[in-house]
Specification:
CATH topology: Rossmann fold
Shape: globular
GO molecular function: ABC-type amino acid transporter activity; ATP binding; ATP hydrolysis activity
Subcellular location: Cell membrane
Radius of gyration: 18 Å
InterPro entries: AAA+_ATPase, ABC_ATPase_HisP-typ, ABC_transporter-like_ATP-bd, ABC_transporter-like_CS, MetN_ABC_transporter-like, P-loop_NTPase
CATH class: Alpha Beta
Structural class: alpha/beta
Helix content: 25-40%
Number of helices: 9
Organism: Rhizobium fredii
Family: Belongs to the ABC transporter superfamily.
Order of helices and strands: EEEHEEEEHEHHHEHEHEEHH
Largest sheet: 6 strands, mixed
Number of strands: 12
Length: about 260
Amino acid sequence: MTSLLEIRDLHKRYGTVEVLKGVDCSMRQGEVISIIGSSGSGKTTMLRCINMLEEFQGGTIAIDGQEIGYETADGVRRRKPEREIARQRALTGMAFQQFNLFPHMTAAANVMLGLVKVKKMSRDEARALAEKWLDRVGLLSRKDHYPGQLSGGQQQRVAIARAIAMNPKLMLFDEVTSALDPELVNEVLQVIKALAEDGMSMLIVTHEMRFAYEVSSRVIFMNQGRIGEEGNPREMFLKPKTERLAEFLKTSAFN
C-alpha cells in the first residue's frame, strides 16, 4: 500500500540548535499515530514541518506522493512558490493547543470561513457542511454561539470541526487538550476517538498516555530530536524496549 506520509532524514534547526536530527517516518492511509515524549523532544516541531508552518533544513516530507515545501533541481534545494505551498498545506488539517477561533464570528461562521474563501463554496453549501461537522462534534445546537459563549472544550471542538470540514488527507493534532481544564479534556478526546473509529488518518501529539494507548494503531516516542522507539501501543506501553521510554512512562500519567 502506498504511504500517505513519508518523512526521510528530516533535519530542523533553530539557529545552531538542531531540534530534529534525522527523523524517518512512514504512515499508511487510515492509521492513527500518537507521538509522545518529553517537552523539547521535537514532537510539535515535526508536525509544524509537515504542514510547512516551519521551514526545515534537510530531508524530505511527502504527502500522498507529493514532496512538500521544497524541490531539488540540479542538486540545489529550493523552497516552492508560496501559492504551491498554500495548496499543499490544504492536504493537512491542524488543530492546535490554542483554538484560534475568530471571536467576532459564530461557531458556524468560523467553520464556514475556509470553505467559502479557500474552497470557493457558496454560502449555502458551506453552511450545510459546517452544520454537518458541528453536529458530528456534538455542537449543532451551539452553531450560532460566539466563542466567548462557549467553554474551552466546546471551542476546541469547533476548531476540530473547522479543520476537518476542509477535507484534509491527514489530520494533525498538537496537544489539543493541554489548554483545557481537566474536566473538559475527555469531551475533546472522545471526538478524536470517534474520528479514529471512522478511519481518519491522524497524527496526534499528546501527553494523554491512556488515550494514546487506547486510540493509536501505532505510537512514536520522540527523544532528543530522534525517534527513540516505535511500535504498537501494547508493546510500547507494557514492554518498552529502551530504558529511556521506560523512564518516561514512569513519570507519565499512564498506569
